[in-house]
Amino acid sequence: MERYQLKIKLLSDLCVSDGGVYNSLIDTDICYDAYGFPYIPGKRIKGCLRECAQELKDWGKEIPIRKIFGDKGSGAGSLRLGNAYIEHMSDYKAEVERLLPSPVVCRQNVVSHFTYTRTQTRLNEETGIAEEGSLRTTRVVKKGLVFRADVLLEEKYKADLELCCTVLKHMGISRTRGLGEVSVALEPYSGKDREESFVSDADQISPKADILEYELYLEDPVVCKSVNGGQENTQDYIGGSKILGLLLQRADDREKEALLSDNSLIFSNAYLSVDRKRCVEVPASLYAIKNNSREYVDKTAAEVYEQKDTEQLNQIKHCYICRNDFGELMLCHVSMEERYHHRRPEDKGIGRVAEDESGDSRFYQISSISAGQTFGGYIKGDPDMLKTIKRLLAQNPDCYVGYGRNTEYGKCMIRVAGGKESSRPVKKKAARVLVKLESPAIVYGKNAMYTTDSEALLEEICAALEVSKEQISRTEKYIGYTTAGGFNLTWGRRKPHVEAFDKGTVLRIYFAAEQEILVQDRYFIGERCQEGFGEMTLLEEAAGSRGTICTETKEGEKGAVQIQDFGIGKAVCDDLFDIYIRMTAAEQAKKDRAAKKEFVTAAEAMPAVANMLLMCSECTDIQEVSKTAKDRFGKDSGTKEKKQMVSEGILKACGQTCEKLAEEFCKAYGIADYQSKDVQMRYLKAYLNQVKYSLRKAGAGKDEKSS
What we know:
- The protein is α+β, with helices and mostly antiparallel strands.
- It folds into four domains: 2-188, no CATH class; 196-278 and 333-347 and 361-416, 2-Layer Sandwich (Alpha-Beta Plaits); 426-541, Immunoglobulin-like (Sandwich); 561-706, no CATH class.
- The chain has 15 helices and 38 strands.
- Strands 8, 11, 12, 13, 22, 23 and 24 form a seven-stranded antiparallel sheet that branches.
- Strand 9 (225-226) and strand 10 form a beta hairpin.
- 34% of the residues are buried.
- The model is unreliable at 703-707 (pLDDT under 50).
């Protein structure tokens, strides 16, 4: 697979909508990310290119459409196409992260820099006026911007894809009404090198290491289909089978055989990672206290919990946990998002999305794990096998996992840490033991069928601990349930859907007498352990029934941020300063008019204001405007004298305001030393326009009163 870049230049304004509504003022919005940067979804680009390929085929050109673009269902093609982001996106993003949490680079300010809104109505054919309630607002990306998308493709199909790019001239909505004209070209990849902060460990694995840890950074959203919801829902973790599949893609035939035949090889699930700590599911035995966000109750603690009359307990809902440096419990949630998609009809003469003849909608949505998050997991196996695995994973940090990884979803970076050795299993005596499932567990019952009977789970746990089930006197159970499934791409078949014990399940087991149990770092019980199922750990018994939750503490006020003389920060500041100038001018004009400090009547002031607006278009600075006004209005005439008085009053008011305008703007937005050109002229134009509007409004009111 060769790597290329797709360059998309906007020759007109563009609106690629995902069907979502993020602002009550905008009816049709574009696609933009969490920072506010517009992007073109990879699925839209691939769909447009496929239509172009179909047109070329209709014209007699032999284009292997299915081999390049794939087919419906799981028929993946050679083309792997990502989202198209604005050129220099990585630099823009780094600058925004540096400036946050400054309000200057908030999401709406950033998106407003690259876009603007259009309005339209529907006319009544009989009356010729707009129909009531037909006003619609659309946000569009400004023409002239350049977007780039990563492309992976077999070299033999390069010429065919280049031809499709040549044919592609429009995309997005309203492409027959002036929007969406583009120029598309396939170019060699010229991306930057990876950041050193996310590079695999170069050290060799020690001869005794049996654990290989890794982290996945999500560059694009990732979809790991859940059994219950089909493609509309996703798991909030990355299953071990996805990492196994990634390895099989990179391995040769001999290595594939070794990976699949090694039954001792285990791929754990990758869970949310915070500060390079792998989080795990919250135990089902932990309960939150209503109206108390700082404490929780552990029902398996040695100390008996004494409930107060005013306390109400609720089991902590699904989330991931880890401990901070102070031993406090941190509750972490995976960020999820919904994206909307559609399929156009086979008949391209229909310019909209229409339902199938069966009545099924062509609109659908996909739930995914949001980009920008890091997930951690590990691989357990023979040291020699781990050396091979590390070589395969570290050879290229770019990887693709999950559903839809050929388009828009699934792009990640993988970092492999050095291997480490597990502690040796030892035998210890215990009167009771506390176990927790860190991943879903699939177990068999006595009749060789999958079951969620807790007795079958106890048997598996006893076998892992190497104790007899008959020695158990009683058990406290905090059990959750889930459904496990999957899909095998090699066979093109679904794996059986089975009920399983969910991660977070906790059992406290009491023995009739002290027993010798096998103690080790982690256990794996039940079926499909190689795919991450059945991970189990021993928990330490908490001394107290109450624990402390780490609540998010707000950062102290950040000092004034330094805006560079280039980049997205400066561009957004310029936009905001223009708005600030107009707002200040409007307030000043309103005050001046209300106090009648500068103007006598609207009829006397309007000619002077109109003349000064004309001067602003002819002059380069405010000094030249002042000189021109004196030359034109300095003659002996009653009318000229009044115009001179008006112009002097306007110039004086503008001069006084402009002295502190930039300083007040910096203070309002927390900016240090922001510099802008032609502040006086920009403010004068804005002030004159506001005065003109005020005078026109005053004159209209007078006419209405006299009539």
